[in-house]
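Tokens help. Our protein:
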Amino acid sequence: IDIETAKKSQRIKRNDVLFAGSGETLDEIGKCVAYTKDVEAYAGGDIVIFSQNNVDCIYLSYSLNSDLMTKQKRKLGQGYSVVHIYSSGLNKLYVPLPPLPEQKKIAEILSSWDEAIEQVANLINTKIAYKKALMQKLLTGKLRFKEFSKKAFHKTELGKFLSPTPRPVPRPNSSYTALGIRSHGKGTFLKTIENPETVMMDTLYEVKENDLIVNITFAWEGAIAIVKKSDEGALVSHRFPTYTFNREIAIPEYFRHVIQTKRFVYELGLVSPGGAGRNRVLSKTDFLNLVVSIPSADEQKKIAAVLNGIDKETELLEKKLGCLKTQGKGLMQKLLIGKIRVKV
């Protein structure tokens, strides 16, 4: 920032604790962080700065971000469209404080846990970036397996290997499982329809594992997926047509990656005419006329195995990350209220 802006801003000193003084919701206000650097820095007017005495600033920031303190801060929020919390309110917070040496030890433990979480998160991002780059090469033929290098990719219309396969069933009289598709290539999800009478259609359609399924209203936004085994038997409306594969030409394990590419989603947009905003509907005829360039079915299997292997590794890392976050949150709560004490 320039000198004039600095003069109008608040100077931050090492070991200060910074609070978010405003936010869109009660949960956003009062989030804080300890400033532990020696670099000269300044904060804007919405940041509340506290200079602490005889308290470990890192311990204090963990404590003030805990669920116990969040409940206190929620009571201090003021406003509607934008919620504010002021220093006068923050001064009223009650913070459990063990002796300073124990504060430092707790801060050290929680910081180490956060570092572990960050390392796993970075590994996940690396895996995702690696898969994206590898997928771009494998799906376009820029990178080939030696045994397939002499066999060219061939262009073919989707209709040559995808067959519309509706499986109509009467709308159930009791609760049932419905399937939806997330946009941006994020796959399917299941939900329970408790009251079928709220569904206007008398006929629904059953999905099966390895179907290609598309939401014709949001296909242009990447709402297309391959049905998972856990989705089998779920029901959809007529707006979610399903297709089965001719495995001699294309396999769903491979095509699951094709439909995630920017190029394919772009093509879906071209065959989804419509008006302004998000009101666009896929032409099922034009969809089957889209042309893709694909290798032989055998090479598709090998490409799918490589990419699916990376996905599996990423999934395991994501589970590990979730466990670390859950365990870390539980440990933090117990350390900060004294349920677990540390020896110094």
Remarks:
- The chain has three domains: 3-96, 98-148+297-344, 154-294.
